[in-house]
Amino acid sequence: MKPILKVENLSKDFVKPLDLVAKALNKLGQNYREEIVHAVDDVSFSIFKGEIVGVVGESGCGKSTLGRMIAGILPPTSGHLKFELDESKTSKIPPALLTQMIFQDPFSSLNPRKRVIDIITEAPIYHKLIDQAEKQTYAEDMLQRVGLDPDTLQRYPHQFSGGQRQRVGIARALAVSPDFLVCDESIAALDVSIQAQIINLFVDLKDKFDLTYLFISHDIGVVEHIADRVIVMYLGRIVETAPIQDFLKNPNHPYTNALLAGVPRLEIGKRKYEPIKGEIPSPLDPPPGCHFHPRCRFAEERCRVEKPILIEIAPAHFSACHLNDRA
Ligand SMILES: Nc1ncnc2c1ncn2[C@@H]1O[C@H](COP(=O)(O)OP(=O)(O)OP(=O)(O)O)[C@@H](O)[C@H]1O
Ligand code: SF4
Ligand SMILES: [Mg+2]
Q1: For residues 79-103, b (16+ Cβ closer than 10 Å) or e, as one string?
Q2: Ligand approaching nearest to the C-alpha of 311
Q3: Ligand 1 pocket, residue 59 CB under 6 Å
Q4: What confidence tens digit (pLDDT) does each residue in 276-318 have?
Q5: Spatial distance between the Cα atoms of 248 and 242, rounded to a whole number of angstroms
Q6: With b meaning 16 or more CB within 10 Å and e meaning fewer, what string describes 132-158?
Q7: From the CA of 40, how far away is ligand 1's center (Å)?
Q8: Structure confidence by residue, pLDDT tens digits, 230-249
Q9: What's the pLDDT tens digit per position in 151-195?
Q10: Residue owning the nearest CA to atom 7 of ligand 1
C-alpha cells in the first residue's frame, strides 16, 4: 500500500513574545528572552489511502497544531509533508483544496451572514470547479450527501441545530472534492446521540468518496469506534502508534497505559481520559530525556537524560520507551 501522506521530522515552534513588563525590565539591564513552545517536536509517520488515523493525548500536546500543518493552514517550522494525491484530481483541483479541515465548533466556522447555498458553493465557484448555472443543483447534491434536506439551501447557519450545522460544515468541505479530511474534535461540541450520527456519516462518506482521515479527539471511545490506527502524542512528540485492536489490547507506553488505565468500556462520549498523576509539564520548558519521566512510575536515570526513540515492537506498532530495550 502506498502512503497518501508522509510526515517527515515535522516540527512547529511558537515564539511567546515578551510582555511589556519584561521589555521594560530589559531596558533596565535585565535579560528576559522570548520563550519558545515546541508545540510539535520532530514528528514522523505515514498515512495510507482510506485509513482513519486517530490522534489522542492530553490538552496542549500538539494535536491541533499537527492537524493544522497537515491541512495546510499553518506552516511548519521545519520538516516535510509529502502528499501523494489523486493525479486525475490534481490536474483539475488545486492541491491545497484536496486537504480540508472540519473544526470543533460548526457555528463559529460558518459565516453567519451567508446562506447555506453560498457557504457550500463559494469555494467551488471561486476555483472554477462549477459555474453559476450549476450552483443550485451542486449545493442540493452536497446537502443530500450529508443527510440534509435540499430544501434548506436558503437558510442561514443559526436556523440549524448543532448536528445539522456540522453537516453543513462537512458539505462545505466535500464541495471541493477533497482526498483527505483533518477532523479536529469535530464532534466534541455535539450531544452524545448526535455524535454517533456524525461518526456514522464520516464512515459512510469515507467509503463513498474514497476519503482518508486524520481524526483528532479527546475521547478514546470515539477513536476506538472510528480509527484504524491511533497516534498518541505527549508534549509535542509521538510516544506510541499502533493499529486500533493492538492499541487497545496491548498498549505499550506507560503514558498510553495511564491514559487508558481503569477506563471501563463505555459508550461514545463518555470514555474520556483518566486524570494522570502529576501535572503536565510546561511545553515552554519540557523535561529532558523522556518528556514523561516526571510522571512515570517506571522512570529510571536513563529516562531523565536520553530521549527514547520510536521502535517497532509488533507489526506496525511503535513505542518510544526505554523499557522496550530490555525485552
Ligand atoms: N498560535 C499559537 N501561539 C502560541 N502558542 C500556541 C499557538 N497554538 C498553540 N500553541 C501552544 O502549542 C501547544 C500545543 O497546542 P495545541 O493546540 O496544538 O494542543 P492540542 O493537543 O490541540 O490541545 P487541546 O486538546 O486543548 O485542543 C500548547 O502549549 C499551546 O499553548
Ligand atoms: S522512557 Fe522511562 S520515563 Fe519514559 S515512559 Fe519509558 S520508562 Fe517511563
Ligand atoms: Mg486542539
Answers
A1: beeebebeeeeeeebeeebbbbbbb
A2: 2
A3: yes
A4: 777 788 888 899 999 999 999 999 999 999 999 999 999 999 9
A5: 9
A6: eeebeebbbebbebbbbeeebbebebe
A7: 9
A8: 999 999 999 999 999 999 99
A9: 999 999 999 999 999 999 999 999 999 999 999 999 988 988 899
A10: 14
CB distance 239 to ligand 2 below 6 Å: no
- Cβ of 31 closer than 6 Å to ligand 1, yes or no, is no
Q: Which atom of ligand 2 is nearest to the CA of 253?
A: 5
- The residue nearest atom 26 of ligand 1, judged by CA position, is 59
CA distance 274 to 296: 15
The reply to whether ligand 1 has any atom less than 6 angstroms from the CB of 63 is yes
Task: Tell me the C-alpha distance between 23 and 250, whole Å.
Answer: 51
- Burial class of residue 224, CB neighbours in 10 A (0-12, 13-18, 19+): buried
- Count helices and strands (H / E) in the chain: 11, 11
Alpha helices in 54-209 (DSSP H): 63-70, 87-90, 116-126, 135-145, 162-174, 192-209
Amino acid identity of 75? P
Question: Which of 55, 65, 231 has most ligand 1 atoms within 8 Å of CB, for mutation?
Answer: 65
User: Cell for 223?
Assistant: 477513536
Q: What residue's CA is closest to ligand 2, atom 6?
A: 321
Taking the centre of ligand 3 as the mean of its atom positions, its distance from the CA of residue 78, in whole angstroms, is: 20
Residues paired with 172 in a beta bridge: none
> The dihedral of CA 241, 8, 283, 215: what is its sign?
negative
- Which protein residue's CA is at the shortest distance from atom 1 of ligand 2? 321
CA gap 11, 6 in Å, rounded: 14
- Pocket flag, ligand 2, residue 323 (CB < 6 Å): yes
Q: Which three cell numbers stand for residue 283?
A: 511545553
